[in-house]
Amino acid sequence: MYPVIRLLTSSWKAKRSQTQGPIDFADVGEITFHCHPWDLDMFMEMNNGRVLTLYDLGRFDLTIRSGLWDGLKSQKWGLAVAGSSVRYRKRVRLFDKVTMRSQVVAIDERWFYVAQSMWVRGEPASSVLLRTCITAKGRSVPTQEVCDVLGAPEWTLPMPDWVKDWEQADKERPWPPKP
Question: Is the per-residue pLDDT at 134 higher than 90?
Fold first, then answer.
């Protein structure tokens, strides 16, 4: 089940913190939460699927606090994930306090690349790199148009080599997948 209560709570906190001054779209957004019993799998650690779902909360926080949410609403735009790569390195156990960090690390003409990580007791537990876009009527909106709406028409964020390498490797992966 989708963590609706967490979504509402984190969105409310993001809206509240935005009144103290919004963050820049490229800044690191940070939220914290605890691992609950309904987050666990049969091995008593946070379920891998739940990890990806909870990463949504960090992106929503970043979207709200950066002011992008207001632009999305005014333009009737949506958000989409078009690719991801996840690393799991440390188990997240029941009642662990998790700090999640989210940041836009690169943009090109079509995609926003978002890096996120979860930390427990100062140690990285997992990280994800996502290729995301803003959508309108089932199509992606050019990133320049999004930056214009955000009031940052000159904003650019060059792609680091590790993101370029991931993007290139993903292009070489067969599509459609072989049976």
Answer: yes
